[in-house]
Design brief:
alpha/beta, six-stranded parallel beta sheet
Amino acid sequence: MRVLCTGGAGYVGGHCHRAFLAQGCESWVFDDLSEGNREAASPDRLVIGDIRDTEAVARALRELRIDAVAHFAALVSVPESLKDPQGYWSINVEGARSVLDAMAATGVRRLVLSSTAAVYAHDVAMPISEDARLDPATPYGATKLAMEMMARDYAARFGFAATALRYFNACGAETGGAHGEARRAESHVVPLLMESALGRRGPFKVFGDDWPTRDGSCIRDFV
């Protein structure tokens, strides 16, 4: 299997890229490195480009003879999405459409989408099931749901085999320490909590701590 991981220089995408290689797959990373880390992929496995450039994505699919796409490239901060909804719709939705168009043009028909539990309504019963009501409360969640719906329509039209992964907060690092979560401006719950515990930042403020629900999953479970 030959796989292209869009956003594979990021946290979850980087873990999956390494897991694919470890399992004997041929895997490459397509990333503009605006948020990701160059060290996540070796130079011969890294294609630098913007997912909104459909021809660049299609060229990578053709030249690398890709069988499947794992689409991780996206903006992922809920607070940031409230400040910059235009940017989130551009990258998360138009970027996904560009990837889907490139797949349709090159005959690649296998797709895994990196989505989010933020697509669910806030008032759904616990534990949350896959068929729970969808009603995202933020631009981030809305863009991910739009991506899912668009992929569903492309799958019906072009015969894609597509799966969307709606995960919660990821945590953890590679056992050997070669790959973990490293962002220029951290905004995610688990890293912020660990930095606070290590004394690298002030007290960790919990919003909505009246719910006894753990919102976290280990990175290995996503992979």
